[in-house]
Amino acid sequence: MTELAIIRAHSAPDPAAAAPPLVAVEDLRVSFPASGVEAVRGVSLSIAPGECVALVGESGSGKSVTARALIGLAGPGAKVRASAFRVGGGDALTFGPREWRRLRGRFAGLVLQDALVSLDPLRTVGAEITEVLAEHDVVPRQARPERVRSLLEAVGIPDPEVRARQHPHQLSGGLRQRALIASAIAAEPELIIADEPTTALDVTVQAQILRLLADRKAAGTALLMISHDLAVVAAVADRVLVMKEGLVVEEGPARDVLTAPRHDYTRALLAAVPSALQPSTSGPSVSPAPSASAAPSASAVPSASAVPSASAVPSASAVPRRPDRSHGAAPRGPVLAAGGLSVAYGSRRAVDDVSFRLHAGETLGVVGESGSGKTTLARLALGLLAPDAGEVTLRGGPWSGLPERRRRPLRPAVQVIAQNPLDSFDPRHTVDRLVADPLFALPRRRRRERAIELLGRVGLPPELLGRRPRELSGGQRQRVAIARALAFRPEVLICDEPVSALDVSIQAQVLDLLAEIQAEDGTALLFISHDLGVVRHLSDRVLVMKDGRVVEEGDAGEVFHHPRHPYTRELLAAVPRLPE
Amino acid sequence: MTGPPARRRLPALRAPAWLGAPVRRLVSAVAVLWAAATTAYAALLLAPGDTVDILVGDGADTPEIRAQIVAEWGLDRPEAVRYLSYLGRLLHGDLGRSYQLQRDVGEVLAGQVGPTVRLTLAAAAVGVVLALVLAVATAGRSVWPRRIVSAAELVAVSVPQFVIGIVLLFVFSFSLGWFPVSGAADPQALVLPALALGLPVAGVLGQVLREGLERALEQPFAVTARSRGLSERAVVARHALRHALLPAVTLTGWFTGVLLGGAVITEALFGRPGLGRVTMQAVSAKDMPVVMAVVILSAAVYVTISALLDLAYRLIDPRLRSA
């Protein structure tokens, strides 16, 4: 393939140019000979003291490998080469394990994505931080407990003495991410490498962690921030490097790159970010124009752009359509409705007095942070969980109250699309089997034809029929999940975080596909997400949930532009924003 | 709080939730022991022939002994009374009497417990230490040592203990003369039996530990640990090993069985005294009271071990403590 041109924006005279950079690498190349993967194919990068540099790109772009190579942790079996490689004042090309170890923790601290697994789950938070203090002999042994306490305090953890004795699973997501940061800064490093530090967090907690990182930067620590989320990067970065397929395709001051991108790929990435504040367009909307540069990953699987785009799907006439419900005898009441739903787990009320009505062809968005009861609500709507109080009705008839024997024949009408199809698919089944399983009533040959039709509707070629879930890309998997749900000709699709595991450009394509299916079939969508932008993009009406209760409900535009409840305002304020 | 959420579940045969974990544990332990005692009793009843004949076995069959059996087992009384008095006897720690040996079973076994405990503990130590050393030395390392050790472990697992024992005897006793051929007189006599019994355990445990270590070393927390400047050895010792121990602890229940079962053969092969040999003699002489007592004793050992394992889990994994 053709090499992608590197576009460098002219940067203003660098105030930190006087001091030597902390890290300076020229033409960094990282390959994994065992698997034949070239993860990084010639990246040049420097980080000045006190500077915040961001590496952005989609999964598989090589951003994490690049960052880890800077502290000699590119991974087992990685082959790292560079024409020049200076780290912490030394020539990294000559470093052995001992030299790397002296730099790690002391010169640069690493913060990974999810502290639940990035801190050792079997050890206390205090032990993890003490480990850094001991390894680099930062303070004498007897002073270490006090230092742990002050570090936890410095990252904003209340009751530091108590927290130090607890294990990661006993802390909330935000607190444990703070604890992870405390362990990364324990030896007062000059550089923090933060690899997707807020990706596992709720939006309000994300805002707090970003503020904490910005504080560290203000205190003089340099920051290398890796993220797939351009808006997150916009909040803290001085300079941005956009990576794609192991190369930097664009580089420059954050403002310039994010407001006036020069490379098509950067533009496509920016265009694909669904915004919580901009109204969704009714047209082809968020998908970036299908261009060769929008190919999302370097994986061996044919990328989504090689697949006919959703708009090239056979038109409605080629696909047998369900009878148009608008001409049916049924009155135009809600397809799915819930009144006064409550469910308690032990003493905790997961869902508390929730009501909603969902009409054919309509999308009801449900937003809320983790633990707000969104997924419990989905399980109630699916009839997988019986409410303690209240009722769900389907087409005006009973649904949640039915015994399972009588609910089963009705189940095809309500289908689900889950966040991670890898978990919800049998890994040994082929796509053919996954999609065709619901069609057991059809004769074998007809079943295959129908499976091909369904794949066509979700923009996948028939060649994928023989593949297994692991051999598909993330976007392809989610399309297969949609095809499987469509096999039942459902009236209601419950989408529980259907795009949260996907890169932005793929996310946009899947959202478009859902909108298109809805327009063609008149399917009602119950769309659950923690991502306000995604919900804003697709929803007609929105429920905002907090601690199991609906705190605000209304027309999507109304809720996002004139939020009435303080919590909705807080959520919207916490959403990281791209510069205008 | 309204109704308990558990009401939708199918009624299951288990202790109610208000009983704490330790109480539930105790209840299930007692249930297992009761089941073992009852199974042994059922075997006695279901065996073909007259119960008195079975209890006499191959021993001297005199009218005095027969009368003694009828009296002690309550064979002249109703079934239910017999069964209950059998359970009552066990509750008092009375394992009955061997009519062949004309001794109390408890007394017969007590004299044999020591050598068997020494043998199984030594074998367990061989298994655990060898497995730990080999797994730590080869986990995530270069291909060749890993392959060789892995192959050796496979051999250790698949070769029966008595074959290992015979090979050890040939090499180290008959040819080299380093260790005694049989007996349990001096500590040296323990070496070969412990190896024969412990090597298969080391094989399985080594595989499981290495796999656990390698999985743990790929986890994000291991990357974090390395990013603090820890050496690979420290990452293994302080972080990965504890994670790798969890699946290995699960296996402890299994290898208790291997050690107890293996002790029968190993003790016979090396001419050692012990429970294994007593069991073998009792089985071949059809000394039913002794066999029944061994069944109940093994169940007791299992129950104790699995209770200890539960405790060990909680010690290793703090996530289970709050759950």
Automatic annotation (TrEMBL), chain A:
SUPFAM superfamilies: P-loop containing nucleoside triphosphate hydrolases. The keyword ATP-binding applies. Signal peptide: none annotated. Residues 23-270, 336-572 form the ABC transporter domain. Keywords: ATP-binding, Nucleotide-binding, Transport. GO terms for molecular function: ATP binding; ATP hydrolysis activity. The keyword Nucleotide-binding applies. InterPro entries: AAA+_ATPase, ABC_transp_ATP-bind, ABC_transporter-like_ATP-bd, ABC_transporter-like_CS, Oligopep_ABC_C, P-loop_NTPase. Residues 311-320 have a biased composition (Low complexity). Residues 311-333 are annotated as: Disordered. It comes from the Bacteria. GO terms for biological process: peptide transport; transmembrane transport. Belongs to the ABC transporter superfamily. This is Dipeptide ABC transporter ATP-binding protein. It comes from Microbispora catharanthi.
